[in-house]
Design a protein that fits this description.
With 323 residues, the chain is an alpha/beta fold. The protein has one domain: P-loop containing nucleotide triphosphate hydrolases (Rossmann fold, 3-Layer(aba) Sandwich). The protein is 36% helix and 18% strand. Strand 9 and strand 10 form a beta hairpin. The two termini are 21 Å apart.
Length: 323
């Protein structure tokens, strides 16, 4: 029997809207849905300093990818029923998945794994991945608005452009393009765009993709990015663990990406270990930590599924929202 726990809120009075399965219970689901993943696949998918292994892909992400195909097929059937009811021509639109979580928690790796696995199932061969980094305001505009120290916070994005992109994708446009962001230059690349052409599944990965809609000055709210999602995943861990992972990643970047003379953060490449740790902690305490606590973490309850990681970065349990 599966060990399923239905958790209550901290006051013990109301049950959570999630069903919780520990790692062993969730992993049993993979036995009914085999899919081959090789060591070469793993090398290509593994993120920076992310201790991902084949066992985790097979036990955690494989069942999740299969569940997502079931949701995708069900939504497609619902679209067909609705089109028939409205006497409209049936038109398939992309199934959109949002992936949210803190810096350094592993959401980019999660997104890459899901893209790879979903593309191997017969019903979803065409999967695209877009990050919201491309919708950050250019550095020049951030400086003009005095927001360079708030990069990654909700106000640092071109939210209108992101909403327009999602609306066009959901509207079935044949081609929709998004700006390109360079982590080397730490800025939008002028004149470069990625074109999305009616995929079966679109994964949208970003820090604040599950944020609540803004309140309008005259009352009411606008559209939320998550209004366009058919399914959403939040990658979760203790804040103290994510802080340590961020510092570890900073130290790795110091010896790799920051060593490039063209890198925006090249000035950090010459830091000693002690200086690098201190710098990383300062950045975390003034930017990434506050953004997590104030803006990202409060959106966790809005997700369809929450992946909970332990101190060693491995997935410990999964929480799936009840239908």
């Amino acid at each position: 029997m599966w060990r399923v726990t239905q958790r209550r809120e901290s006051n013990g009075s109301f049950p959570t809207p999630f069903v919780e399965l520990d790692r062993s219970a969730w992993s049993r689901l993979a036995k009914n849905h085999p899919l081959e993943i090789t060591a070469d696949d793993l090398t290509r998918l593994r993120g920076l300093d992310h201790p991902l292994n084949l066992g985790e892909v097979q036990e955690v992400y494989l069942p999740l990818s299969r569940l997502l195909t079931f949701y995708c097929e069900a939504v497609e059937q619902l679209h067909g029923v609705t089109s028939d009811f409205l006497m409209e021509r049936r038109q398939r639109t992309p199934f959109v998945i949002g992936v949210a979580g803190s810096v350094a928690v592993g959401k980019s790796t999660t997104s890459r794994i899901l893209r790879e696995l979903l593309s191997r199932w017969p019903s979803t061969p065409n999967v695209e991945l877009v990050t919201t980094d491309g919708f950050l305001l250019p550095n020049a505009e951030l400086r003009r608005r005095g927001l360079m120290h708030r990069k990654g916070f909700p106000e640092s994005y071109d939210r209108r452009a992101l909403l327009r992109f999602l609306a066009e994708v959901k509207g079935g446009r044949p081609e929709v393009s998004v700006p390109v962001y360079s982590h080397l230059s730490y800025d939008i690349v002028p004149g470069e765009r990625i074109v999305v052409r009616q995929p079966d599944v679109l994964i949208v990965e970003g820090l604040n993709v599950l944020g609540a809609p803004p309140v309008r000055p005259m009352g009411g709210t606008g559209m939320a990015v998550s209004d366009y999602f058919d399914f959403s995943v939040y990658v979760d861990a203790r804040v103290s663990h994510i802080e340590r992972w961020y510092v570890d990643r900073f130290l790795t970047l110091r010896a790799t990406a920051f060593a490039n003379p063209n890198a925006y953060f090249h000035r950090y490449a010459a830091l000693s270990d002690e200086e690098a740790v201190a710098t990383a902690l300062t950045i975390w305490e003034t930017i990434n930590g506050p953004n997590l606590v104030e803006n990202i973490l409060p959106t966790r309850q809005r997700a369809t599924l929450v992946i909970v990681k332990g101190e060693d970065h491995s997935v410990q349990k999964v929480r799936l929202r009840k239908l």
